Amino acid sequence: MQTNDVSQQHRNNNAVAALNLLRGVAALMVCLFHCKKYIWPKTNPYSFLEVLEYGYLGVYVFFVVSGFVIHIRCTRTGIPFKKSDDIC
Questions:
Q1: Which burial class, exposed, middle or buried, applies to 66 when counting CB atoms under 10 A from its CB (0-12, 13-18, 19+)?
Q2: Looking at residue 59, what is its pLDDT?
Q3: Tens of pLDDT along 2-61?
Q4: Chain-centre distance for alpha carbon 18
Q5: Spatial distance between the Cα atoms of 27 and 63, rounded to a whole number of angstroms
Q6: pTM here?
Q7: Where are the alpha helices (DSSP H) in 1-88?
Q8: CA angle (86 as vertex; 82, 88 as ends), nearest 5
Q9: How far apart are CA 22 and CA 9, in angstroms?
Q10: d(CA 49, CA 35)
Q11: End-to-end CA distance of the chain
Q12: CB contact at 8 A, 33 and 53
């Protein structure tokens, strides 16, 4: 393996690690959203916890990023993707 190949693979691994970190943050957003809603329901409306009202958006972020990570992993391992007309 050449030096360029190793550095490219290292950059790709860092990119996937960053995406996994983003997935973790999104999952944490959802958990905190539920904590805010069910555990801390009566907070000051000007509290920093009001930011957690947008935690439901973490679900969308998580699924979009997860789909991208799955695609990256499959293309690296050589797993072919089927066209949508082949599936049905």
A1: middle
A2: 93
A3: 555 556 565 667 778 889 999 999 999 999 888 877 777 676 666 777 778 888 899 999
A4: 9
A5: 10
A6: 0.67
A7: 3-38, 57-77, 84-87
A8: 120
A9: 20
A10: 10
A11: 41
A12: yes
Cβ partners under 8 Å of residue 53, min gap 6: 33, 36
Which residue do the tokens 């009001």 mark?
Answer: 50
Give Cβ neighbours of residue 79 (< 8 Å, ≥ 6 apart): none
Count of residues making up the chain: 88
Higher local confidence (pLDDT), 84 or 29: 29
Say what the alpha-carbon torsion angle 71, 72, 74, 77 is, to the nearest 10 degrees: 170
Q: Look at the block and give the residue holding tokens 């089927």.
A: 82
* Cβ 30 vs Cβ 55: under 8 Å: yes
Cβ neighbours of 33 (radius 10 Å): 19
Angle at 27 between CA 29 and CA 12, to 5 degrees: 120
Q: How far apart are CA 78 and CA 65, in angstroms?
A: 20
